Amino acid sequence: xxxxxxxxxxxxxxxxxQTALAPAFLLVALGSMLNIFTGRLARVIDRSRLVQGxxxxxxxxxxxxxxxELRDLQLRIKYVNSAIYFSVLSAIVVCILIGLLFLxxxxxxxxxxQIVAGAFTVAVIFLSVALxxxxxxxxxGIRDFMIREEYLERSDRDK
Length: 159
Known about the structure:
single chain, mainly alpha, rod-shaped
């Protein structure tokens, strides 16, 4: 049947599990970020559908503003999709990293240490790119959210 693991091996497994816990927290954080990104994408898509519905009803200056907003919404969709893509890539690399940590801990193969370090670096690079893309989307969204001057109804002394 199954042989009982020696005490040393049991201790090694516990150590490997503890070592793999840190990247698991990164995986949880990536999952939370993906939730935020997909929520943001849904809101942008909802807004684009609303503006597309107004597209044929507008003329003149209002139509130009509608087209401009649609272009910015398309850009925002592109940025959020890119952020989601790089977050998923980062999560995949973190999963591979966890597997490599187990393999390294159980085989005591020191050559895997550089691969683990490289995988961690790649995961952080993908995460950084995702955050940069999300930042670009947020900046575009803030720019679009600026209230047009004609809606502010300022008096001459407020200007």
